[in-house]
């Protein structure tokens, strides 16, 4: 069982759950929860998009470790590839299968979804190979993957996006949020800088204001409860990392930020009035937390 477990470790199962929440949030943003019987095949369509994001996210993080194999032998020798449990070729094969499967699943729904899946896979590989080495472009590159993933969920009803102007810019906010987490994560091994953490907190605040504005606009005030939980999850570890920016504290802030993506997505859904879908998304958090105890998040 060691090798199958090694493959799972490469895929970061806890993170994949957060990617599924992106798809559900995107679906909520375009009105999936209120479709009723108008689109009887919508659940099957949503299933293809969920399968797509599992493949795309899993493949992306696997290739992250493939490209980082040499560095991980020094900094993270316990990971599957540097430890010798999984070879670089085996990792590359797994990553390729996942990415191709993710793209194929998206095309099973629509050409638009397939095109966005290709863009996600490309952005992930660019980040894994080159983007992560750039201080500014790297975080934006990583954020782009999440923004496109939310957009992938929104392709469930693409015609809705053009009718609601604000929806066209919503994918920008996950880009900012993930860019903030990526900025912080660069200090996980050797420690970081308080100024970087402060800048990340500012980006967090922009996202929080956007969700609050959407919820008030739709008079979906119960979304503020989800938003309060989101704030409670991300800021305490971030404040500790700000006061003492050592590797372990930064690692906890990054982990909290990644897992809290689920509640951020639940907040987006609630802000659109999709309360039951928001609750369903939020219930993914315990699943992700359990998986995070078994498999590394970062």
UniProtKB/TrEMBL annotation:
GO MF annotation list: transferase activity, transferring alkyl or aryl (other than methyl) groups
Subcellular location field: Membrane
CDD domains assigned: PT_UbiA_1 (cd13964)
Stretches that traverse the bilayer: 12-34, 46-71, 92-125, 161-184, 196-214, 220-238, 250-268, 274-296
Source organism of this protein record: Dawidia soli
Keyword Transmembrane: yes
Gene Ontology cellular-component terms listed: membrane
Membrane topology term: Multi-pass membrane protein
Keywords of this entry: Cell membrane, Membrane, Transmembrane, Transmembrane helix
Annotated protein name in UniProt: UbiA-like protein EboC
Gene responsible for this protein: eboC
Keyword Protease on entry: no
